[in-house]
Amino acid sequence: MIDDGRPIFQQIADQLADGIAAGAYPEGTQVPSTTELAAFHRINPATVGKGVNLLVERGLLHKRRGLGMFVSDGARDALLADRTARFSDAFVAPLLEEARALGLDLGEVHRLVDERADQRMRRDPAQHEPPQQRHPGPDRERTPL
Amino acid sequence: MSTGHAVSTVHADSAPAVRLDRVGRAFRQTHALDDVTLEVPHGTVCGLLGRNGAGKTTLMSLLAGHDRPTSGRVEVFGHDPFTHAPTTSAVSFVRDAQRYPDDFRLRHVLAVAPRFHPQWSHERAAELVDAFRLPARTDVKKFSRGQLSALGIVLGLSSRAPLTVFDEPYLGLDASARRIFYAQLVEDLAEHPRTVVVSTHLIDEMEALLEHVVVLEGGRVVRDCSLDEARSAAYTVSGPAVVVADLVHGLPVLASSRLGGLRSVTVEATLTPEAAAAARAAGAQVEPASLQDVVAAHGAGPSTGHTTEQHLETAGARS
């Protein structure tokens, strides 16, 4: 926690969102209370509250009076779609930037990606079956990573 | 909330819990505090940061009404804490040099403390004593440094005082005991919100507890802002000296170091995505400075802050 320069409330929100996306907090279930999150991470409760509210504003969490915060229906799909949309910016752009700094051309980058994908496939073929339409994506044949 | 004492601590949002207006505190020729103006909003945790001798303890003594300013005005919940007795019981001051009567054991301290603090929580006190494993049969004056700090934390948190002031509350505590303190502090604050002012040098491990940050240097306030603002106040560029010099040109430099042909410069500016991209494109590394870096940069050399001569001039003008 708080290992980078982003605001702490943002990191709390991201961490909860990651938990929802990973299925650790299934839809309809309760997420830890502000007090629990604050005590667990040793973070100011107001900061935690601000982070939780970010997810409420995005409709990913909702409050049930007197009970606490719950994961909204559709939250997981929304988060996965969001991450898919950001995949290129978050992973492909830095990859290409570093490749350029090293003087690798695009063909070499492709070759390295394929090579790595093959390695993974050989190591554990079962884990790399295509995902079963978890969220809408471009309609083309998927090569499992 | 019925508090049973005469100070109203529940104000409109506009009224700060603590207000200092052009406060000075001089000890002979030394200005421990000089023209300090600041406010701490209700219900926030404010970190008081700065090097030793910056004036942190002097400022906290003023808040607790243990001392009065040479000039300017100190207000806690709208009153002067030095003269207004009810305000004193609204403040719990946990300080390094707390003394206890010679024959006191733990139970004596825990029996006396609630008399000063009407909102005292026996449950919180019992939980903390247990967590810190404070000995019941040892005279408090024989407590170790860490045990004394732990006892101070028990008193500060259990008092549930509307304003709690911790002066480096972690001295002598091991890492597990500090974690207990942080977890209990945020848990108790979540359930019973109140205003806390805490001084610390352990910035990396305590910054997440804070909402507001005040940095003192040589008795003056050099930074007074939210934690997020303070955390994004500076960034460090490192790489080939020529490239770095170009990238930081015109920006206020907080710290700078050199290693052969490489240079690392911390500048006081918000890191924009454009600046980060420009730096990377030029072959330099860029990363946000930590709050610790920002605080360490203040008071690190004579170029920041005012000189001794200015100090004495101010002192002369005042007396």
TrEMBL record, chain A:
HTH gntR-type domain boundaries: 6-74
Alphabetical keyword list: DNA-binding, Transcription, Transcription regulation
Ranges of Basic and acidic residues composition bias in the record: 115-127, 136-145
CDD domains: WHTH_GntR
Top-level taxon in the UniProt lineage: Bacteria
Pfam family, one: GntR
Chain positions covered by the region annotation Disordered: 115-145
UniProt-recorded Gene Ontology molecular function terms: DNA binding; DNA-binding transcription factor activity
Protein name, per record: DNA-binding transcriptional regulator YhcF (GntR family)
UniProtKB/TrEMBL annotation, chain B:
Region (Disordered): 297-319
Database matches in Pfam families: ABC_tran (PF00005)
The organism's place on the tree of life at top rank: Bacteria
Any GO MF annotation of the entry: ATP hydrolysis activity
Coiled coil feature spans: none
Record domain ABC transporter: where: 18-243
InterPro entries (alphabetical): AAA+_ATPase, ABC_transporter-like_ATP-bd, P-loop_NTPase
Keyword vocabulary terms for this entry: ATP-binding, Nucleotide-binding
PANTHER family tied to this protein: ABC TRANSPORTER, ATP-BINDING PROTEIN, SKFA PEPTIDE EXPORT ATP-BINDING PROTEIN SKFE
Protein name stated in the entry: ABC-2 type transport system ATP-binding protein
